[in-house]
Design a protein that fits this description.
single chain, about 180 residues, alpha/beta, 8 strands, globular
């Protein structure tokens, strides 16, 4: 409250981002503080543990969500489903919670064989203009990358990163958050 009185933040632009455990926290803040949070960005995190995904409550209001995850992350497995909810389960949770009407790809992020070739997935037509976006970091480990990730010879890599999306984790997160004020 003291910071609000001193800084006067725009209440439509309250964002939460986090890496690893902070990524789990960003998901949790998006759910529990959905009346205040406009958007979250979770890097190398998941919405819940695998055993509790079905018990995660719905947020009170829609929240835009960006997820970045390396397909070779040894700490928070991409498709594990045994320890943590998979990236597919996290994406599906948010697209359902935000009542999204369109998903750009029918293909899953994970299947019975493991990680699929899908590098980006987007749910749009969501309540109150929110969006759910996922980017796979090809060759990505458990890290917050400050190097450009749009060159095929670099690791990690995503062919969909460009000047509009951003090419480093900082750029990608900020571009997404800045484009999603609370409506």
């Amino acid at each position: 409250m003291a910071l609000q009185a001193q800084l006067h933040p725009d209440p439509r632009r309250i964002y939460v981002t986090g890496f690893s455990n902070g990524g789990f926290m960003a998901h949790r803040a998006g759910i529990e503080l959905s009346d205040a949070v406009a958007a979250i960005a979770a890097v190398e995190g998941s919405v819940a543990s695998a055993e509790s995904i079905q018990n995660v409550p719905a947020p009170l209001r829609p929240v835009s969500v960006l997820m970045l995850h390396g397909d070779r992350d040894p700490a928070v497995a991409y498709c594990d489903g045994q320890t943590y909810a998979s990236q597919e389960q996290s994406f599906n949770y948010w697209s359902a919670a935000n009542r999204c009407s369109t998903t750009d790809r029918a293909a899953s992020l994970c299947n019975a064989q493991g990680i699929t070739s899908v590098a980006e997935k987007d749910a749009s037509g969501c309540a109150r203009g929110t969006e759910v976006k996922f980017y796979k970091l090809l060759g990505g480990q458990h890290d917050w990358y400050t190097i450009p990730m749009n060159a095929p010879a670099s690791l990690p890599f995503n062919p969909n990163f460009d000047a509009r999306s951003g090419v480093t984790t900082n750029d990608i997160v900020w571009n997404f958050l800045a484009a999603h004020p609370k409506r």
